[in-house]
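[job 4471] stage=fold_predict status=RUNNING
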Amino acid sequence: MAKPRFSRLDCAPGCSVEAAIGLIDGKWKSVILFHLMTQGTLRFGALGRIVKATPRMLTNQLRELEEDGLITRTVFAQVPPRVDYALSPLGRSMEPILQALKLWGDANLGLYGKPTASALESPDAA
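[job 4471] inference complete, writing C-alpha cells
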C-alpha cells in the first residue's frame, strides 16, 4: 500500500501553505494546470507539445495531478486511443493562484529569466 503523500505534514502554522505548494511542486505541474485553465481540455499529445517534457515525465506529473484530484482524465475506447485531460472543480479553484503567479511572473520575468521587451528598451538596462 502506498504511503500517503502528505503524511509528513504536522499541521503546525503554515501547514496549509506547505500542503498547497505540495500539490503543485512538480517541475511541470503548475504549467500543466495553467494550460488546462487557459486552453480547456487537452489531449496528451497536445500537452506534450506545449509543455515540452519527456513523455515519461509528463505521464508522472499527470498521474500525480489526477491522484490529487486537480485534473480529470477521460479515456475514449477508440483506435487510436484517445485520452483527454481537464481541470477538475478542485483544479478550477486554483485559478486565482495560477493567475497571481502569472501576473507576478510577467512583472518580474526580467529579473530571473529572459529579458522582457520593456527591460530591453530601458536605457539603464544592464
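[job 4471] summary: The chain has a mean pLDDT of 82.
[job 4471] exit 0
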